[in-house]
Design brief:
Layout lengths: L6 E12 L2 E12 L3 E5 L6 H8 L7 E6 L2 E2 L4 H7 E4 L11 H12 L3 H14 L15 H13 L5 E5 L7 H16 L3 E5 L3 H7 L2 E6 L2 E6 L1 H8 L6 H9 L13 E2 L2
Parallel strand pairs: 3-8, 3-9, 6-7, 7-8, 10-11
Antiparallel strand pairs: 1-2, 1-4, 4-5, 9-10
Helix pairs in contact: 3-4, 3-5, 8-9
Bound molecules: adenosine-5'-triphosphate (ATP).
């Protein structure tokens, strides 16, 4: 690891079962401050479960989670102060306007009203929602709701952003805005972990990529490191991804053992 980058998130041997079935099976990875980490995997691989545990919305059966050196399982409130969580389904308080929603969320985080208003104005403008600030969220399209939830997630200036499918349902312009916002936060030193099924996004944006399947981390590293480890030099991320994951879920992946770049 570069000595200039601190660790935003460290997950060690995380495990979670539902009714005896392992959804997350001993996953370890870290996300550095100032880095975008893409967590990829086929449907049901365990991505959302992993992120929900880190966000403190689900309890783990085993493992350790450290957010900027805060033990998130021992001190979840302190960890949550550092985290932004964007769920894959945008949930808003429908009767509130976008502005009221952001005021409400900022109040929950204890953001001083003056800073909250300035940041709400900046985010709504950046995301193209300023003209809709006084409209109730129930009148918003899915993409508009997604953007409002993202603004709410960022209002307390979190140091670790966890974004579950942040681009799903967004049109091309909105997608570009959200990608720019994510890049801005990375440049400012936040750690960002996102899941996406749009592999081109991970290919273009991620500093490092982790691919999981059946709750296990199969491979991790930069795209170039993934290509080398998978023996897929010169191939696209999609080719690498499919070569590693396109086996029946009970089958053996192309890599027999986890290959984790240091
Ligand atoms: P997708 O790409 O489809 O969103 P994912 O990688 O995010 O998938 P998870 O939602 O984490 O996958 O699910 C991992 C596994 O855990 C799946 O087998 C899923 O069926 C199971 N699972 C998730 N939530 C529950 C739940 N509340 N109860 C029982 N099983 C669950």
């Amino acid at each position: 690891m570069s000595p200039t980058l601190s660790t935003a998130l460290k997950v060690t041997d995380l495990a979670k079962s539902y009714g005896g079935k392992r959804a997350v099976d001993g996953i370890s990875f870290d996300v550095r401050a100032g880095e975008l980490y893409a967590l990829l995997g086929p449907n049901g691989a365990g991505k959302t479960t992993t992120l929900r545990i880190v966000a403190g919305l689900l309890s783990a059966d085993a493992g350790a989670i450290s957010v900027f050196d805060v033990d998130a399982r021992r001190d979840p409130l302190a960890a949550k102060q550092l985290i932004a969580w964007l769920p894959d389904e945008p949930l808003l308080y429908d009767k509130l306007t976008a502005w009221e929603y952001l005021e409400f969320v900022a109040g929950l985080w204890g953001v001083p009203p003056v800073s909250a208003r300035a940041e709400a104005e900046r985010l709504l403008t950046l995301l193209g929602l300023w003209d809709n600030r006084n409209d109730r969220c129930e009148t918003f399209s899915r993409g508009m709701k997604q953007k409002a939830v993202l603004a709410g997630a960022l209002i307390h200036e979190p140091k670790l952003l966890m974004l579950d499918e942040p681009l799903t349902g967004l049109d091309a312009a909105a997608s570009r805005l959200v990608k720019d916002l994510i890049r801005e936060r990375v440049a400012q030193g936040a750690g960002v972990i996102l899941t996406t099924h749009i592999l081109e996004v991970a290919e273009r944006m991620a500093d490092r990529i982790g691919i999981i399947k059946d709750g296990k981390l199969l491979i991790e590293g930069s795209l170039e490191e993934l290509r080398q480890q998978a023996g897929q030099q010169g191939q696209s991320l999609e080719d690498v991804f499919l070569s590693l994951t396109a086996t029946p879920s009970s089958g053996t992946p192309a890599l027999a053992a986890p290959v984790v770049a240091q």
